[in-house]
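Researcher: Let's try something more involved. This one mixes different molecule types, so please make sure each is placed in the same coordinate frame as the others.
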Amino acid sequence: MTLRFSFKHQFDNQSFVIQGEIPSKGVTAVFGRSGSGKSTLLNVLCGLLSPDRGEVTFKESRLLDTEQGINVPVWNRKIAVVFQDARLFPHLSIFDNLLFGSQSKAQNERFKELTTLLGISHLLDSKPNKLSGGERQRVAIARALLSDPELLLMDEPLASLDLPRKREVMHYLNQLTDKIDIPIVYVTHSLEEIMHLADNLLVLETGKVADFGTVEHVWNGDSLALWQEGEQHSALLTAKVSERHPKYAMRKMKVAGHALWVPDQQFENKHNECMRIRIDARDVSVTLSPVAGSSIRNVIPVQLIDIEKLNDHSCLLTLALNEELALKSILTQWATDELKLQKGNRVYAQIKGVSFTQQNLATH
Ligand SMILES: Nc1ncnc2c1ncn2[C@@H]1O[C@H](COP(=O)(O)OP(=O)(O)OP(=O)(O)O)[C@@H](O)[C@H]1O
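Model: All components are placed in one shared frame. Result:
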């Protein structure tokens, strides 16, 4: 673990007792309801807020220790922050914005690498007002990284963009996070961003850490239940890209020793790579035996390990693929009764092909 924090702070109407550790690699998403303390945590990490009591240690050096009177100022922490709005200087070109406050020279390899990775090389002579919101945000990310930080904090960097722009910047961020080797702490309200970008997930609830772990672990646990109400339940699994179907444009994905067939989408170069796959509970149905003559290609033997009543008419089933991984399925109470489903039953999960859209697969 590279970044450790433990602090207490009291605002007029809200107290925070937040402690945790963030690994030295990858993207750690910070998620939680409005007011749960996400920005407060970021502000303490970068030094914009001095908490009442606490400590922050980064790579064994103390950035904050209220007992010892240590509080390294923002500009000496080697931490860069990207905010929701790009905060570019309107009168400067993109080139000058990028070099503002940076040690790097334009010829510098790093400059070339970052502007290429973020797809902004062709924008260097423009002024910020000529750029789209997504492009401005990509410039802001490049500028943050050109200050050679050892830690990057991002506070809802996509929140002010419309959906197509969000996806555009997410695509660039995805490539970037594979290439840069500093840890990123990424505040977001979006499960889609988490699925596509994050390795770890820290969930805050009313000023406290409610959960922390790999994205898959936290996603499939209970702490995201508020965000996955009713029809929105899903399971997030890791799948290995395997062979293409000899006749049809379908690709085999291996999940927990089972094969899932999904529409083949730009997977040629990804053989044997792992991807994330989100399977929505509404796309999973249950049969007591494999049905002959069904149109559904994906039929997997599972064990029913939990039945939860969602409302008057539907139930949420948890279907174990193995000891660690499970699918979720939403069935009507009627079907659950008629099939006499009970915990422990061995049944078959049928997964509809519609579950495998581009949005449900992440090259993470
Ligand atoms: N400077 C401040 N002065 C007084 N109270 C504050 C201050 N900053 C934050 N708070 C309080 O702390 C709470 C948590 O704020 P914070 O910005 O950390 O939440 P958040 O999880 O980032 O919320 P959001 O998702 O809405 O940005 C706020 O609801 C507010 O009540």
